Amino acid sequence: MGATEFEYRVLGPLEVLYGGSPVAVRAGKQRALLASLLVDANQVVPRDTLIARLWDEPPDGARNALQNYVLRLRRTLSRASADTSPGGPEGPIRTCTDGYLIDVPGDALDLHRFDALAVRARAAKTAGATERASALLGEALALWRGEPLSDVPSELLRLEAVPALNERRLSAWERYTDADMELGRHADVLPRLRELTAAHPLQERFWAQRMLALYRSGRQGEALDCYSVISTLLLEELGVDPGAELWQLHQRMLTADPSLSAPTSSREAREARAEGNLPAETTTFVGRESMLRTTQKLLDSARLVTLTGPGGVGKTRLALRAAAEASWAFPHGAWLADLAPLTEPRLLERAVAEALGVRDHSQGPGTAVLVEHLRDRRLLLVLDNCEHVAEAAGQLLAVLMRAAPGLRVLATSRQGLRVAGEYLLPVPPLAVPRDRGAPAALTRCEAARLLADRARACAPHFRITGRNQEAVGRLCRRLEGIPLAIELAAVRLGTLSAEEILERLDDRFQLLSGAGAPTGARHQRTLRGVVDWSHDLCDEREQRLWARVSVFSGGFGLAAAEAVCPGQDTRREDVMDVLAALVHKSVLTVDTTGPRARYRILETLRQYGQDRLQELGQDVELRRRHCAYYADLAARAAAQWCGPDEETWLARLRLESANLRAALDFCVTGKGDATAGLEIAADLTRTRHWFFRSSLGEGRHWLTRALELAPDAPAPLRAGGLALAAWIALCQGDQPAAEEFQTRAMALGRDIADGPALGVLSHMEGALAFLARGDVRAIALLARARGHFRAGGQVGDAHMATMLWAMAAAFLGEKEPALTAGREYMAEADAHGAGWARTWGLWVMGLAELRHGDARRAADLFRDALRRQWAIGDRWGPVWGVESMAWAAATTGDHGRAARLIGAASRLRRTTGVALTGLRPFHDAHTEVERSVRRTLGEQAYTAAFAEGAETQDTMRLALGETATR
């Protein structure tokens, strides 16, 4: 289970985690639904079964209600996984013909892990590895946190599922105790058995174990007393005598049967003396529970498992822990061969032989000696740090594995060894905190747990508290969950606060230099040493491409790399192969789950690449190419705005937001071209990128900054940029700034006879008349702007003018023209096949219906628009969708719901930085509805309902849910 997957827990109160962070599933019915799916995970649960588990007495329309709860649960899970598309992918919950199914991969469910550990314990016991069986059963029982599903409101689950789960737990306790007693731990198990017989007084097996443990501890009288107690209990409670096992044990005790003595532990002594040279751990093993289980499972089935990943990610530590826990299965032990000091690949065989304790004084290759030693042995070989001798290691292992069928190999390398049958297991960084959270929640995150644990050694007084929790979370995110970086940062906590480390982290290679860190090879104990080692393993072309891709931020695609990164040594057509080599060597990672491959580089490796790029003297040139590529991307998006690819462009621009920001930053702060920056900012505004991402403030910043730095830009571009800045300021409710920007734009526009800027100026003139002044003349002005855009072939801009024109007609015009304008706008959106535009067409049509037609139809249209906007990830539209649904609720007499929606809309405006005061038609409509609702409900009821809406954690559920008042 990776750091970006769900984890579910049912062996106690129901819990859900994503990336190590808790996911709140608060609603009782959602918890019951999730639990009902999890107890039958990966199987279709019929609808009737789910209904019976959710309701003791199913209501009318139970199937529709169930469907609604499934939708809500999907939204809850999608928010946690950053998939905010309720109408998009189903996430882990799938709809099937006969019911629903939850996909639970691997060991993501604690119940599955419990069962798997129990099975492995049984296998270990059968193989005579009682010590290992005891450890596995102890690990399995540690997964239990209390009564299963204790907080889930489902009577049927309590009657059917919970008893079955408890039976599995009791069986594990029996086997765990048997194993410990076989190991001679009779006194150790007595406290446990006292608790078990108290909690389960009629379980004869626990009483038998308790009697035997007492007997073997020399407490024969107490053992016989136990028999009297259980005999009385059974007679009083059930009217029966003890069973045959208990009776026979009692008789044998009375006769002092010699076979009751503790068994000899010669076999366990042999296990304890198992061969091997694995080093003892000197620090605690933190996190990686899921990766450890995955590694152990692979070792059960694959003969060669190679842990791959960038330097410092924790491959060696994971391999050593996995090998130690698997060593019981290898009669000839687990052996470590650390290849890091090896500089000559031809000496590889001798290095491995030395690690295995094989004496080889021959003159020839050591392969034959190794084969002879391993041929009849069953052992685990840990081959650590293979990357610099990967080819030689692969060749050696191919020979050894063919000749020695009992050999298993666990290797660590920054690249695969390319051996037949090799299983590559990428080791990701530790899970980092996703956002703010309480200290208790933060310390459940792997990266924060490691930081706190290691800090205790050098900063004994360090604790994660409410004061420093945000800084600790940011530090873990900036260090990207890389264990080496976190451990080095923990050393610095002895002399610096978390906040001070963050301030100095831009020079992380100097800060995390290993001062005070444990001793060892420098390439293993300093961040720069680790990355230098990776760099040296790359050939010259790979090193240069590593440096060049460092200009990207937040990932990049193949097309971007082919456009930006070619050089004299790397042709465009070679880029793909060199990228593949960097992925193979763990410098880059690649995600191929989407329609286009997406490459990423850890920030630590990116900073290193930037340093190299500067040394090569190519940083400015590469940033110019990067800027040109993303300027072209923004221009193409603007040119194709309002068409069938509209949603695709919105998603792509959002995906590339970090690169677009980097390009803009280069234009206004580096050696770039501020005019190019103005063009990018203007094109992104025309595509409504800032609106879609709910980042109007950022869009305004880039426009105004570029305008300041490009006073000599062409007048049409400057006029258009000023008008777009005015549009953003107006949408923020900042009327004075909008007026000032528009005045400056109009002054420049006097000399512009035609062209795109003329339409922008006309559009802003109409927008100000409509939104700032509520002037009916805005309808004609916007119609004129629409004509200018159409004449210039600016389809997207023309569509936006049409939207505002139809909106102005609804607010300021008469009934028939308003309804006609709404229908015309809808028809235009449909004709263009533009998904985002259609959502606004529905909204505008709803507005026309609300003010001039059928309020109930208006509510349906608003709801449809809101659902579609949320499904495509729009964060601007819902600000107005929720507000307008409050208007519709008030108009149809549902005043309680209206008040809650007003509160929810207020919260959305705060988070997006929008003020109604500068948007007169919206402000007037809001004020009128608010007064009406307040007057109808009364001040106290209105305030309570408003607060409920403002505090809701699920605004979309409130807005899209049932419309009935509470």
What's the short version?
With 966 residues, this protein is mainly alpha-helical.
Cα-atom Rg, whole angstroms? 34 Å
How many helical stretches? 47
Mean pLDDT: 85
Overall geometry: flat
Measured between the Cα atoms of the first and last residue, the distance is 42 Å
Sequence of strands across the biggest β-sheet: 8-9-10-7-11
Helix percent band: 55-70%
Low confidence ranges: 83-89, 265-273, 515-523, 962-966
Quote the beta fraction: 5-15%
User: What is the number of strand segments?
Assistant: 14
* Protein structure class: mainly alpha
Largest sheet: 5 strands, parallel
Task: Describe the model.
- With 966 residues, the protein is mostly helical.
- Helices cover 61% and strands 6% of the residues.
- The protein contains 47 helices and 14 strands.
- Strands 8-9-10-7-11 form a five-stranded parallel beta sheet, sandwiched between helices. The chain has a three-stranded antiparallel beta sheet with strand order 1-2-3, with no helix packed on it. A three-stranded antiparallel beta sheet has the order 4-6-5.
- A hairpin with a 6-residue loop joins strand 13 and strand 14.
- Helix 18 runs parallel beside helix 20 (483-492), helix 39 (795-812) runs antiparallel to helix 40 and helix 41 runs parallel beside helix 43 (877-891).
- The longest helix has 28 residues, at 155-182.
- 47% of the residues are buried.
- The model is unreliable at 83-89, 265-273, 515-523 and 962-966 (pLDDT under 50).
